[in-house]
Amino acid sequence: KMSVPDYMQCAEDHQTLLVVVQPIGIVPEESFFRIYKRISAVNQVNVRDSQRVLYIRYRHHYPPENNEWGDFQTHRKVVGLITITDCSSAKDWPQTFEKFHLQKEMYGSTLYDSRLFVFGLQGEIAEQPRTDVAFYPSYDECETVEKRIEDFIESLFIVLESKRLDRATDKSGDKIPLLCVPFEKKDFVGLDTDSRHYKKRCQGRMRKHVGDLCLQAGMLQDSLVHYHMAVELLRSVNDFLWLGAALEGLCSASVIYHYPGGTGGKVGSRRTQGGSLSAEAGNRHRPGKDGISFLSCALTSNGINADTSAEIGRAKNCLSPEDIIDKYKEAISYYSKYKNAGVIELEACVKAVRVLAIQKRSMEASELLQNAVYINLRQLSEEEKIQRYSILSELYERIGFHRKSAFFKRIAAMQCAAPSIPEPGWRACYKLLLETLPGYSLSLDPKDFSTGTHRGWAAVQMRLLHELVYASRRMGNPALCVRHLSFLLQTMLDFLSDQEKKDVTQSLESYTAKCPGTMEFITLPDGLKLPPVPFTKLPIVRSVKLLNLPTSLRPHKIKSLLGQNVSTKSPFIYSPIIAHSRGEERSKKIDFQWVQGDVCEVQLMVYNPMPFELRVENMGLLTTGVEFESLPAALSLPAESGLYPVTLVGVPQTTGQITVNGYHTSVFGVFSDCLLDNLPGVKTNGCTVEVIPALPRLQISTSLPR
C-alpha cells in the first residue's frame, strides 16, 4: 500500500522527473537547505538539439514504499538521487563514498543516475575528475552547482529516452512483461500467460506506461495517442485500476495542453526560465531520431501552430476542459474500488479540484473535496492529519468557500494540540486559529464591531475566541488571554447568556489579577499587532453633559466702566433648523465658563447591562486643551440598572479652551480609555468650554439665619 499522500500534487506533475536530494552524515541544516534551494531552482531544462523541455520535481524526503508505485505512474519513481555531504579529511572519504552507495541502494531499482556533492575536501582526491562526484572547498565556493545539475538532468534524459524508445517499439514475438502495483503481485501467480485476455492486459498496461514516458520526455502529442490506445485496451479487459491510471494520464496531458501556466497555484510557475525557449521554437516541428516527427509541448496559450495537421491531430486526442473533469471522475470511481489505492484516489481528487478551481466550477470542486475528506487511509500520524486538513482548507479557500476553509484550518489547529502529541504545538495551533478569523467574519479590532449589524455566526465566533484564549494560556501568555477575553466581552456581549457573562468576567478577573489589561498594542512574534479593547459597554454611556458651576461660584461678565456696549450685534438671524453632525455637536461652544482652580462637574447617564452588580473603579475624565486634574470616582451600579446619573469631577489648573474627549475606567482589572468619538449613541450638549482665570471670591458672613 502506498502510505504517504502528496497533497501538493497537481496534474502537471505527471510530466516531471522525480529527483531526491538528501544529506549524508552530519550536514548543518542551514547549509543543506541553502544548496537544496539552488538545486531545486533548476527545475526546467531545455534538451540540447531539440525543442523539448524537461521538468524536474525535487524532494528532500520521499518514502521508499511510494517509489514501488513507479511502474503504475512514472512520475512517482525516483529516477535521480543527489546527495550532499561534509567531508574535511581524506581519511573520511572511503567511508563517505560507501554511505553514498548505501543511499543509492535505497532507491536502487529505479534510479537512472546519481550524484554526490562533497563540501570541504581539498587535495589529491578532490582533483581526480569524476562524473558522479563533485568536490567543493566550502558552501560559499560552489559556483558550478547549477551547471552540474543541468548536466545531471541531461544524463537522466538520455536514460529516459532510451527506455521510451525501447518500450515504444513493438517487438513482435517478444513477450510484453506485465507491469504491476505492489499489492497485485500475489494475485497474478499461476495465471495463464498465453490467454488473449492476459496479453491484452500486458499490452494495455505497457501502452499506458509508454504514455507516461512520452509525457516526461516532453512529447505531449505521442503521450495522448498512447493513453487513448491504453484506455481502449484496458477497458476491453476490465482492468479497472490501470484503466483509471490511463484516464488520469489522459487528463494530465490535456491539462498541460490547456493550462500552460499550471494548476498548482503559483501563477506562471511552469513558464520557461530565462525565456530560452521562444513560442515559435516551442511550436516547431522536429524530426525525431527514429524518423517519426515529434511535437514539443505547445507553450503558447493559443496553441496556433504552423503545421495545422499536427495541431488537428493533437486537438482530436486532447480532451476538452469539460471532458477532463468527466474522465477524472471516472478514474476516481475506478480507484475507489481498491482499498489499497486510497492515496492515488485522494491525490486524483486534489488534482481535479485544482483544475476545477481554474475553471471556476466551485460546486463540483466542493463535491470532490467532500469525497476526499472521507477517503480512508491508514492510521495517520498527527502531523499528517495537520497537513491533510491544512491543504483541504487551502483548496476550499481557492474555490471561494471561505467558511469551509476556516472550518478545516480550525481542525488542523486543534490537531496541533491533540492529547496524543507528547509536546503539543500551541504556538502553531494559535497561529492557525488566527488564520481562520476572516473565514468566520472576525477581526481582532473592536472598531470593526462598533457600528452596524453583526456579521457572521456569533456562536461560532465566541467558540473561536475561547479557543484563542485557551491557546494563549497554554503558550504562557496571560496578556494575550486578557486581550482576547476583553474582545469577547466587548464585541459579543449581546450574544452572551447571563451565566456566560458571569463565567467570562470571572475568568477575566483571574487573569487580570496576574496581568492587568492595558491600552497598549500587543505585538505577536510574526509582527501582527493586536489593538487595545476599551470597555465602552461596561457601563454603557447614553449622554454626557458638562455642568455649570454652582450659582455662588459662577463668573459674571461686567459691563465696561466706560459704559460701552460690549456685545457686538450680528446681522445674522438665528435659525433653529440647522442639522448638527455629531462632530459639530461635540465641538460646539457652551455658553457658560469654568474657572481655573474650581471643581468642575460632568454628568454622565450610564447603565449596567450585566445581570450582576458592576463595580467600576477609577472612573475619570479624559480632556485636552488645558491642564486638568481629574478626580477619579469609584461606583457600583446595580444589576441591569436602567439609566443612572454619575457625576465626574476635576479641577482645571490653567486657562484656555478645554475639551472633554471621553472617560477612563477600570473594570474587571482592565483599564480602558473610552473616547466619545467611538461611542455611536451618545447625546451631548457640547464638549468644549472656556476656562477663565481664577477670580477673587467675596464671602459674606452674617449673624442672621441663612
UniProtKB/TrEMBL annotation:
Keywords: Golgi apparatus. Its main location: Golgi. Residues 541-669 form the Trs120/TRAPPC9 first Ig-like domain. Residues 364-510 form the Trs120/TRAPPC9 TPR region domain. The keyword NADP does not apply. InterPro entries: Ig_TRAPPC9_Trs120_1st, TPR_TRAPPC9_Trs120, Trs120_TRAPPC9, Trs120_TRAPPC9_N. GO terms for cellular component: trans-Golgi network. Residues 187-260 form the Trs120/TRAPPC9 N-terminal domain. It comes from the Eukaryota. Residues 265-285 are annotated as: Disordered. Pfam families: Ig_TRAPPC9-Trs120_1st (PF26254), TPR_TRAPPC9-Trs120 (PF26251), TRAPPC9-Trs120 (PF08626). It is found in: Golgi apparatus. PANTHER family: TRAFFICKING PROTEIN PARTICLE COMPLEX SUBUNIT 9 (PTHR21512:SF5). Belongs to the NIBP family. This is TPPC9 protein. It comes from Steatornis caripensis. The lineage of its organism: Eukaryota, Metazoa, Chordata, Craniata, Vertebrata.
